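Record passed on here:
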Amino acid sequence: VHLFGPRLRAEADRKGLRQAREIVVVSDAGHGLPGLWREHFPGIEWVLDFAHTAGRLSECAAQACANERRRQKLFYRWKDLLFAGKLDQLLSELSARAKVFARRPKTPSNLADESAGRIMWTHIFYIETYREHMDYPRYRLRGWPIASGHVEAACKRIGNRMKGANKRWTREGAEAIAAVISARACGDERWAQHWPKPLKIA
């Protein structure tokens, strides 16, 4: 993250970040990303990826209900509450279910590994910590994205090119080919600036 942050900011500036009227970023909260946004993009609107948080609710539902049909029904209920921005109600229902397995701990790590209580309280603490970035009704009203699936799909262009049978890369080689693929895909004439057009044969 320490190396990626400055590079990401430089690329954003190159794309016109300083002229933008609104700056919105969509991500989860893993791999040091909250600190990266604070340090290199102060003042931005950070939207916590809806699909990522919904995945946490799915794990909670799996702990709360053994019956598949009831589990799906509970998950969709909690997902709808998240989508509607009803976080107080969502957290209340999650906590009630979690208390069946364990009382609220000071930290989830105080509970047994892989236990239902630890899993549920981990996700509850996560939502409580980042709830200010889960105002999905406001984001939708502003026309902002609430999930990053389209970006992840674009990243597959690199993965699909580099992964496959009998493909092996050194770290340096992987970084080099990833840079080439990205230059071709970026759409800002970067590829053309580095590679002249082929000469036409008369």
